[in-house]
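--- STAGE predict ---
source: upstream dedup step, 1 unique chain passed
mode: sequence only
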Amino acid sequence: GNARVHPECIPARRGRLTEQFLGLLIQPLFSFRYPHFYITFSGLYYLFLLAFMDIFKLIFHHDLTLEHLSGNDDAKNRAKAELNLEDFMKPIPTYTRYYFSGTRLKENQFGLTTLKKKDELLTAIQKVLGAPLWLGDGSTEDSLQKAVDAHRSNVIVVSEEQQPSIDFKGLEPDDHSGVRDRFPIIKTLLDDGKKVVFLEKAHNGTDLHLFSKEGLYDSLLSALKPLVTPDFRYFSINGKRMGSERMFYFETWTLDRPPHGFEEVL
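--- STAGE serialize ---
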């Protein structure tokens, strides 16, 4: 995919962790009882959590057509204009995509694989995806964790076929083109019942970008929700609300009041 601007370069970012959350901490942190004030237990506990807190983000897009996937509005408008009545009555195939990312607040590290619960996350996602996992070098894995750790390929295709026909050379992004340019090939695989996962480079690790024809949101929610703890927060984000780089890194400037469409899973 396209390279992201590092969060340190975003103008809205106003300092390190202490400054970012000072307003959030003040109320629980101090208790005033004349003539003394003291640090409350809840305040100390919250400071401890912030020092070790991880943020996990699942960004979802539902009911996408091929044109929505590619962002080709001109093609979409032309297709609408050329539809006859017979075409209009046919169901239009739709697809879903999910982007998995995360942030380690204390270390200012960004990427799904930087999170403390990386292995648990990958295992949970694996249960939803199924197996085997076909890699671009022709090998297979039965574990998403092993496939991501080995990183022998930037593309993983999930297929139960014994010898699936997959154009990995056409799927693999390069320096001159990204995932968007692969959507026609991705569509063919999705229509055939396969799932496609791209390993996307993050600033300090790797994110995952999943494409599927089948809606997987409920299954992902069931698999991932048990991982939530006070020091591991999970946000489900409507991709339609993800309009900028600044919004992608919302946890660095408005974690206490997430934008509309950014729902915390509790």
